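Hello, quick one for you while I still have it in my head. A protein chain has come my way and I'm curious about its shape. Can you walk me through what the tokens say about the fold? No rush at all, and the record is pasted right below.
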Amino acid sequence: MESFFVALNAVLPMFIMLFIGFLVRKLKILQDSFLPQLNKIVFNVFFPFLMFNNIYGSDFSSVFSPKLLAFAVIGVFTIYFLSIGFTLLVEKSNYSRGAMIQAIYRSNFVLMGLPIAANIFGKDKLGMTAVLVAVIVPIYNMLAVITLEIFRGQKINVLKILKGIARNPLIIGSALGLLSVAFNISLPETIDKTVSDIAAVATPLALIVLGASVTFDSIKGCSRNLVICIIARLVVVPALCLGTAALIGIRGVDFVSLIGLFASPCAVSSFTMAQQMDSDFKLAGAAVVFTSVLACFTMFLWIFFFRQAGFF
């Protein structure tokens, strides 16, 4: 029963916020036309504060784990190349291939991973999880741009990719947080409280916006590929990566961070990138919506299973 309630308490708050967002839209409290602007505010304003706040003040001498970092990076690249090979076998259209690859390898680590770790271990234990975000998000972005450019037949612009990574709000917030730790910078109390208050808004607001974005008419014409993406993202990838992490001895908050990384639904930004780069944005959007809803149940099961097995 303890494992059940640990898993429930980790996932239920996210499910409730998604449902609130869904109701807000259904009740016409929030108009569809305002969702893109609100989503942009969340990712460009609130999330940089969240990333900074999670790293600021952390004692990395006690939480930094080279083993965890190496495993996460190797895991992401491994899943990426496996997803390319698999997609080339099951899908003939380049238009859909890029969107499928993104849906399989690229998780919503920031939006789902951080709350999972915080709900289980507390916000003061998120230092290494935040470092993972600072490393994984640029990798996700780089691989997404390369993939979508290749499958629409364009040449890769390395400088453009590097500029995009450097300007990413999540990377900027993480970098400032790491600098504050490296140089032992302490913010004045008023500024510190302001940063904390803004950071506290980020995750609930982002989940509510995501819930408000849920529509069920995006499945038309892509049901086969959508089912493949859902199973790969929520079942196959977690089974491979978390099973391997368990075998090599990763435990505790580090293991929960990997649940957030490899068992989370598709990244919200994958839809935007697919839309901007001539990929199958309908498939990308449907993958984001359905994996986000279903992940509330699959992540509960993964957390319950590994908690019951004593991995954290």
